Amino acid sequence: QVQVVESGGGLVQAGGSLRLSCTASGLIFDDYHMGWFRQAPGKEREGIACISWRGDSTYYTDSVKGRFTISRDNAKNELYLEMNSLKPEDTAMYYCAAGNIENMRASCNYHYTYWGQGTQVTVSS
Q: Which of 17, 42, 50, 65 is the most buried (most CB within 10 A)?
């Protein structure tokens, strides 16, 4: 059974930092692109950071560029999102996702097949 589990969410003040983690099991981790998506109430889910099989390619949506860093540790089957300079606009449910994608370029527009349950990030002003 494939499982994708996020952790590390919480409440943080504006300007603060938070590190999200994601562990994937039941799949060959190295074969999957991984990504972080978020969804705020009443808004569409958006891909914010995605990464290719070995981390050679990354993608960031404009709103998080320079503030967030996606990385992966294939030896641990783990994905990370370092979030710095957090803003209230970053408040959302954050989801980790895995996709069996045969493209060397990272993108959040690919079909991501497996999804975690989400972890809430709340940034207070």
A: 50
